[in-house]
Amino acid sequence: MDVLIRLLLRFILVPLGAALALAAAAAFVVIAHRNALLALLDADPQAQQDYFVALLFGGPLLALLLSIWAFYMFVPAVIGVLISEAFAIRSWMFHAANGALSAWLGWTLTQDIRDEYRFLAEPRVLVAAGLAAGFAYWIVACWTAGFWKPTRSPRRPVPPPS
């Protein structure tokens, strides 16, 4: 019964960890490019007034366009997560490296998108965002990876004093 509960818990924690990892990576990219985004807004005074409308309508469109890049990054990350779940790898270094490697592979495989959007042109920022995503995923889901391996070893009975 304990294994079944841990398996059901994995079905909750893994998607939650993936969502938070994606949010952490996106927040890292936005913070890293804050000056470029502000310079883009300062270039046109009318853009500041229309910022909310542009964010409301342009945000989902930009997310749709960048989803191709995210797909190329997401596939290697899922392979790393499946490996960690299969072998119960609970190391934060493994997951941070998985995020960095996934971000770098996504960056190398999407040459056409990278040339079109200047915010995806810097590989160091994207690899650092992958590191942040891997660490965020580990915090939520991977310190208990592997549903078949308990997080704590069972207590041994203490022998009675002789």
Count of extended strands: 0
H-E string: HHHHHHH
Shape, please?
elongated
Distance N to C terminus: 36 Å
Largest sheet: none
Q: Average pLDDT value?
A: 76
The proportion of residues forming helix, as a percent range, comes to over 70%
- Beta fraction: under 5%
Contiguous uncertain segments of 5+ residues: none
H/I helix tally: 7
* Structural classification: mainly alpha
Rg for CA atoms: 21 Å
Description:
The chain is mostly helical. Helices cover 77% and strands 0% of the residues. The chain contains seven helices and no strands. The longest helix has 37 residues. It is elongated and about 85 Å long. The mean pLDDT is 76.
Summarize the structure.
By secondary structure, the chain is mainly alpha-helical.
Give me the secondary-structure topology.
Elements: H1 2-32, H2 34-42, H3 45-49, H4 51-87, H5 92-109, H6 111-116, H7 123-140
Helix pairs in contact: 1-7, 4-5, 5-7
Task: Name the descriptors.
162 residues, 77% helix
